[in-house]
């Protein structure tokens, strides 16, 4: 494959990727119109980052330590 063909292929790929990026439309959820007595209102839906991150970090550290100890032997 010549350099000119590589440049053409790279240009085509960049154009196609830009079309895909433009096609990604993020719709915002509608705001709730309920008249609740709380000043904060209902929260947005989603997953909270809680203890799962800490458990994952601990597991990763334990796994890395075990690999490091096995490599020393």
Topology:
Elements: H1 3-23, H2 51-72
Characterise this structure.
With 73 residues, this protein is mainly alpha-helical. The protein has two helices and no strands. The chain has helices at 3-23, 51-72. The longest helix is centred in the C-terminal third of the chain and has 22 residues, at 51-72. The mean pLDDT is 77.
Largest sheet: none
- Poorly predicted ranges (pLDDT <50, ≥5 residues)? none
How many beta-strand segments? Answer: 0
Helix content range of the residues, please? 55-70%
Distance between the termini: 47 Å
Rounded to an integer in angstroms, the radius of gyration calculated over CA atoms is 25 Å
User: What's the pLDDT, averaged over the residues?
Assistant: 77
Shape: flat
Based on secondary structure, the structural category is mainly alpha
The share of residues in extended strands comes to under 5%
Query: What's the number of helices?
Result: 2
The ordered H/E elements are HH
Task: Please give a handful of descriptors for the protein shown.
73 residues; mainly alpha
């Amino acid at each position: 494959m010549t350099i000119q063909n590589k440049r053409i292929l790279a240009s085509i790929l960049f154009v196609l990727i830009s079309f895909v990026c433009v096609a990604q439309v993020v719709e915002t959820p509608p705001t709730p119109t309920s008249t609740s007595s709380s000043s904060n209102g209902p929260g947005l839906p989603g997953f909270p980052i809680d203890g799962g991150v800490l458990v994952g970090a601990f597991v990763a550290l334990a796994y890395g330590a075990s690999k490091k100890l096995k490599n020393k032997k």
